[in-house]
Amino acid sequence: MASGPFSTWRAALVWVIWVASNSADRASAPVIKTAKIIAKRARILFFSPCGLCPVCPQRQHSDDGRNRIGLSRCKGVSRILDSERLRLVDFSTAHLDDFAAMNADPDVMEFFPAVLSREASAAMLHRLIEHRRRHGFSLFALHLKSDNRFVGFTGILRADFVAHFTPAVEIGWRLAKFAWGQGLAHEAARACLPYGFDDLGLAEIVSFTAAINKRSMRVMEKIGMQHDPADDFDHPNLAAGDPLCRHVLYRLRRA
């Protein structure tokens, strides 16, 4: 008899079909809700080249064995997402000129330790592409639908440092200065949330920024994230006393 994730999901889908074919009085509300969740997860199984999501054996767990972030380590899920004004596409090396110009702007990088040289931006771009290759998700490049102009990025990444809330997956954004003040960061981030929760099956998405970065905090609040001051932390990659060291943490859990 076949075993493994495919046979498990076959059995689950048979159950989903049974629930769908029976009236509400024969299937309780919790059962119907569970069936809907299974149906969503099954989409990833059949459209992901790794064939293992969201029951991948390489999912990340905490020390006590419980899944911390509900993350499937898929090596092949790729998406093009749309919002009202934006198209979100995978980064490629063709984005380097626009990406480097944005990262070299002192106003854009106000709440980061330094502006980035072209070489540093190229290295970051390589890491983003590699992150997608390894994990199946990364940041998206943002293009205006109206003229295809690059305006910045948003997307989700594994947090790359150790803190009280890690392992975790974060959502982040950065916009070129000409695109500020138009609600594009909020629009792009909101478009990413269903991708993280529904397609990737994440249990929680976090976001963090320097405690003095009020603009970014407003975006976090607009997309429904919650802040508990007890979660605030000193970023381990910044020196104590650095005005950017103290960070706020926002969380959003799957509904």
In words, what does this structure look like?
The protein has 255 residues and is α+β, with helices and mostly antiparallel strands. It folds into two domains: 1-47, no CATH class; 57-253, Gcn5-related N-acetyltransferase (GNAT) (Aminopeptidase, 3-Layer(aba) Sandwich). It contains six helices and nine strands. The strands form two sheets. A five-stranded antiparallel β-sheet has the order 1-2-3-4-5, sandwiched between helices. Strands 6, 7, 8 and 9 form a four-stranded antiparallel β-sheet that branches. α1 crosses α2 (29-47) and α3 (96-103) crosses α4. The longest helix has 19 residues, at 29-47. The radius of gyration is 20 Å and the shape is globular. The protein starts with a helix and ends with a strand.
